[in-house]
Amino acid sequence: MGTLExxxxxxxxxxxxxxxxxxxxxxxxxxxxxxxxxxLTSPLIPLFVVLYLHYSVVYVxxxxxxxxxxxxxxxxxxxxxxxxxxRRKVFIVIGFTGSFLSLLLILITHTIGMYxxxxxxxxIVAMASTPVATLLILESTVEKKWPNVMASFNxxxxxxxxxxxxxxxxxxxxxxxxxxAILPLLYLMSAIVYLAAALSAIFxxxxxxxxxxxxxxxxxxxxxxxxxxxxxxxxxxxxxxISLKNGSGKKLATRTKIYILYxxxxxLGFQIFFVPFPVFVLNRLGGTETEVFIMYLMxxxxxxxxxxxxxxxxxxxxxxxTLSMAIFSRVGILAFSTLLGLYLMAISASLWxxxxxxxxxxxxxxxxxxxxxxxxxxxxIPENRGKAIGYYNSFLGxxxxxxxxxxxxxxxxxxxxxxxxxxxxxxxxxGLMLLRFQRKMxxxxxxxxxxxSAATGN
Length: 458
Prior knowledge:
Elements: E1 3-6, E2 12-16, H1 28-41, H2 44-52, H3 57-85, H4 89-103, H5 112-126, H6 130-139, H7 146-175, H8 182-204, H9 254-274, H10 277-283, H11 289-317, H12 319-344, H13 350-379, H14 385-414, H15 416-456
Antiparallel strand pairs: 1-2
């Protein structure tokens, strides 16, 4: 899989080769292992809450939201501490070792309160490794090689995630006949892999000599794409952090703030669907733990396949058309899921139809993510583009947290079809507002580019 480079004007200049070179980056194996761990556990919240602890979909939403929310202050704390101490390696080791230790608590977890506490502790310590990973890559590599090295890192990370999901699927298929007792063992397996990631980081990970401040000019040109839409991490990829103190420099342009708000609304709608849907598959469509893992696996594979296509689409047909296609395709799937919940559950293929709906949703995420980041890069003032991307990632996380919380209560009180209908309405409304604003901003950007060209005589 390749990665995209955004130029000063925000234009996607191409997809660089994702071919992995191990020279100087053998420590990528640490993140390969950590992503295997993430893949093993990413579908487990709905399974553990509903099947192992025997709680309702309300608690799936509460657990997901609280676990994600816990990582917000942790992310800021670890990122700022890393910058203050000018150290990277120690925080990656802390993150992986802390993940190993915190997941061991699952062996004594038998109540929803203890489960939430375990995930909150896990999020707090796991966040130590998140804000330093990309900086470590950039600080260890000359700037002209950043796109290729980031491509390799993204490829390795995605391989790990998919491998973890595939391993979980196989384990459940082979050993799942013993009942829900296998679910805590998946957490234990994930913990052991995190320990292997920590040990490999200790021996393979270098401490870079060069240190890049997050507000440097070089990093203002680097955008982090959320290639993975739903993880228990908030956000899933971080370069720029939102400081709790009053920031210096220019404020974000109003147009950038409005655009970020629309992306937050859309993410809210997406999560209203995503969080309860696995429980719908279990409780209404007769799915098992194995089928939920298959659903997550297919969703992420579809997103990975679409990543290269989506970059080309933005360049060839434009951002607005690409986003229109992706957002309204998702609206169609959401509307069909509502019909599935109302009228089609009785048909024999309903389970696999539901799995297909969830999986195809992943295909369109890459188009949406790249379109959003490219638009924000164009709309932001060049001096604070990194700040804009930081706010964008943060507000997507807010949408995820709020959507997860709302979805559980709506599904419990009014049923899954009403929840899916609410998601459809929110995404349709947010999509129409964003695309209308997008067209206005394209006229503005074109005018700005024409003015600069006339001023320079080009």
